[in-house]
Prior knowledge:
Blueprint lengths: L2 E4 L5 E4 L2 E3 L4 H11 L5 E3 H9 L7 H13 L15 E4 L2 E4 L7 H12 L6 H13 L12 H28 L2 H14 L4 H13 L3 H19 L5 H11 L34
Antiparallel strand pairs: 1-2, 2-3, 4-6, 5-6
Helix pairs in contact: 1-2, 1-3, 4-5, 5-6, 6-7, 6-8, 7-8, 8-9, 8-10, 9-10
Pfam families: BTAD, Trans_reg_C
InterPro entries: AfsR-DnrI-RedD_regulator, BTAD, OmpR/PhoB-type_DNA-bd, Sig_transdc_resp-reg_C-effctor, TPR-like_helical_dom_sf, WH-like_DNA-bd_sf
Protein name: Transcriptional regulatory protein EmbR
Amino acid sequence: MVVRLCLSGPVEVVLRGRAMDAGPPQRRAVLAALAVDAGRPVPVEALIERVWGADPPEGARRALYAHICRIRRLGEERDTGGRGRLPVLRRPGGYQLDLDPDAVDLRRFRRLVALARVSGQPRDRQAALLRESLALWRGEPLAGLRGAWPARVREAWRRRRVDAAVRLADLEVHSGDPAAVAQQLRDLLDEHPTTESVAEALMHALYMAGDGAEALRCYAQLRHRLAEELGAEPGHGLRELHRRILLGRPPRGALYMPSASADSDTDARTGSVGQFLLAD
């Protein structure tokens, strides 16, 4: 693939394996607003709202066109036989970044996670797909971009990443080294200290590794954080797991179950999520 776009971490264009300067923040925001819908037309009004918000300046349309012209010329200075250009096509009422969605890291991430959720697959195949998807993660999506739309994208993809990591941990804890899985989950919980699905997966891994006492300490710490920061108590699933560990009973089956609805959202503190429309 000659051209790739990275939206996890700073917005970046990668041409023949080398990162290119995508321009100032506003141009990177235009590129991201197109890339999240790569292969599909995006109305001009939607692009303007994504870049400038609900109250855009008077010259937003002219600025949008100028940025698109510069984006089209990215990579022209290299000898790529014309394949280094970013094909932004004019469509009725809008523009379309005419790239394979797999050329955009977060779009590929979503496809791999969806494949991992197809029923009937062997657990090792599911785990391999999830590892591949998580390896695409470079950091906070759209890093450095301001505004309501980038913030929504970041939150949606934060939840997607957590969801994939928890699912992978559940697969690996039954087929690998629970202690190693627990360490990975500790790191993830440090990033998301009030996310119950991560704490639940960590407690499960610790118990399976033979460290029920540490699993109980993890619960106590999370309960304290939820009370202090959110004024909330742990959810039913976490309380039930805590009860079973106290009684010395093994956790019931898999902790992670894919969402029944592909478009459902859940409580932000659980970190569990089905599909999000990235461009929402």
